[in-house]
Write a structure and sequence with these properties.
Elements lengths: L2 H34 L3 H5 L2 E8 L5 E3 L1 H9 L5 E15 L2 E14 L2 E15 L5 E13 L1
Parallel strand pairs: 1-6
Antiparallel strand pairs: 1-2, 3-4, 4-5, 5-6
């Protein structure tokens, strides 16, 4: 393969990767927005039908309806700030693996709590390019 063809292929690959990264970042921004508004239905709607909300050291909640039911118990919590930052995104087939950090400040029983930690989001690329979560896992690394 000559150098010009190699550079053209590399550029196309980089362009596709950058587009995927932007789509993943946009999807995570939407997820953060649903969390900020304590929108259990919105969050659950971002998962595949058999998606999984994994809790560190605990049970996993599987399926959109179960995820929505689980998250509905937090309706009284006021999330004041929710922010995710991406460390890396890797694509394998139709799945994008996003690794990053999160920060959340919320009022629980009139007490402000701050939690930060790491997350892994496994996004499945749907026909047409829409991203849905197959699995979301987050674990706190510190709190106040």
């Amino acid at each position: 393969m000559n150098v010009k063809k190699f550079i053209a292929v590399l550029f196309m690959f980089t362009d596709c990767t950058n587009g995927l990264n932007k789509n993943v970042e946009d999807a995570m921004h939407q997820y953060d927005n649903y969390v900020l508004h304590t929108d259990a239905k919105g969050i659950a709607g971002m998962f595949t039908n058999d998606g999984e909300l994994a809790q560190p050291g605990g049970m996993s909640i599987k399926g959109r309806d179960s995820i929505q039911e689980f998250l509905s118990q937090f309706d009284g919590i006021k999330v004041e700030e929710q922010k995710s930052t991406t460390d890396s995104i890797r694509r394998f087939g139709d799945t994008a693996f996003q690794y990053g950090k999160y920060y959340q400040r919320a009022v629980v029983n009139n007490t402000t709590a701050e939690v930060h930690g790491a997350f892994q989001a496994n996004w499945v690329i749907q026909p047409g390019g829409k991203l849905l979560l197959k699995r979301m896992s987050a674990w706190p690394t510190g709190n106040k």
